[in-house]
UniProtKB/TrEMBL annotation:
PANTHER family: 5'-3' EXONUCLEASE FAMILY PROTEIN, FLAP ENDONUCLEASE XNI. 5'-3' exonuclease acting preferentially on double-stranded DNA. The lineage of its organism: Bacteria, Bacillati, Actinomycetota, Actinomycetes, Propionibacteriales. Pfam families: 5_3_exonuc, 5_3_exonuc_N. InterPro entries: 5-3_exonucl_a-hlix_arch_N, 5-3_exonuclease, 5-3_exonuclease_C_sf, DNA_polI_H3TH, FEN, HhH2, PIN-like_dom_sf. Keywords: DNA-binding, Exonuclease, Hydrolase, Nuclease. It comes from the Bacteria. GO terms for biological process: DNA replication, Okazaki fragment processing. This is 5'-3' exonuclease.
């Protein structure tokens, strides 16, 4: 990493990436003891590709300390409810995760930490909220790497915050969204994306949206009236040109619209502890790293991420 490289912070939506790796890399990859390694190796390959393509000077793997925060569920009980596998004896709601991925997650964290990549979470918050908070605190441009549309709301050209969106074309050919790209796709400004998403809803997250209001109608409402409070005011005003059917849909969804904005909004004030986001210059724990590389037979994936990060073992 050259000393003169312009500073840029890359924030990884880690779970988004390791789920993608698990489903995209052959499940025949395994260690000698039978432990599956496709998600681990795929994630390391993804990080190598991202560093090579985007050249961040700072890098943080953002973690879901709670994939379904209690404060969001209290507002909308259906939030991610369809993903709950079971409730533990301690009352913890456990996400449905393929068993062959579940066994890899502790190794993923251990591998990143051994390399020296900061792994950061926040109590009772999702990785999205960690990303939102670190973006808010950042003193340099930010690339948010995710397959989650919710994070489009963070895009801000004035602060150099972009989204490297992996869901459509994968990590290697990911779309980079700034304000112009988001406007071209959805016909809304980035600072209104959360309002748009609240209206549209998201079945994958258990967010119903306003019944009968799809993506096009949501975008047209945001374009015509602005933020959600203005849209609701227009729906309640007989003199506005909003169609009667849309007005009725908005008014009928009052209970949902009272609470949904707090659920949809990515937190920018999560209790994220301080961590050094600088890209590591040396392997932080070389003994642990080599043990993991040998145990999991990470081979070329380990070599590639080491090369991309320009890492040397710690003396």
């Amino acid at each position: 990493m050259a000393e003169t490289e312009p500073q840029r912070l890359m924030l990884l939506d880690t779970a988004s990436l390791y789920f993608r790796a698990f489903f995209g890399v052959p499940d025949t990859m395994k260690a000698a003891d039978g432990t599956p390694t496709n998600a681990i190796r795929g994630l390391l390959d993804f990080i190598a590709r991202l560093v090579e393509n985007h050249r961040p000077t700072h890098l943080v793997a953002c973690w879901d300390d709670n994939w379904r925060p209690s404060w969001r569920v209290a507002l909308i009980p259906s939030y991610k409810a369809q993903r709950v596998d079971y409730v533990s004896a301690q009352g913890e709601q456990v996400e449905e995760v393929p068993s062959r991925l579940e066994v890899q997650i502790p190794y993923i964290r251990a591998t990143l930490e051994a390399l020296g990549i900061a792994v950061v979470g926040a109590p009772d918050h999702e990785a999205d909220d960690v990303i939102g908070t670190l973006s808010h605190r950042a003193t340099m441009p930010v690339d948010v790497v995710t397959g989650d549309r919710d994070l489009f709301q963070l895009i801000d050209d004035s602060r150099g915050i972009r989204v490297v969106y992996t869901a459509a074309k994968g990590v290697g050919r990911a779309d980079v969204y700034d304000e112009a790209a988001l406007l071209a796709k959805y016909e809304i400004p980035a600072n209104r994306y959360a309002d748009f998403a609240t209206l549209r809803g998201d079945a994958s997250d258990g967010l119903p949206g306003v019944k009968g209001v799809g993506e096009k109608t949501a975008a047209s409402l945001v374009t015509a009236y602005g933020d959600l409070s203005a849209i609701r005011a227009a729906a309640a005003d007989p003199s506005t040109p909003m169609s009667p059917s849309v007005k009725r849909k908005i008014l009928d969804s009052a209970d949902y619209l009272d609470v949904a904005p707090k659920v949809v909004a990515v937190a920018t004030d999560a209790p994220v502890s301080d961590a050094d986001p600088a890209r590591p210059r040396q392997v932080k724990d070389p003994e642990r790293w080599l043990d993991l590389v040998e145990l999991l037979e990470l081979g070329s994936s380990a070599q590639r991420v080491m090369h991309a990060l320009n890492l040397e073992p710690k003396a």
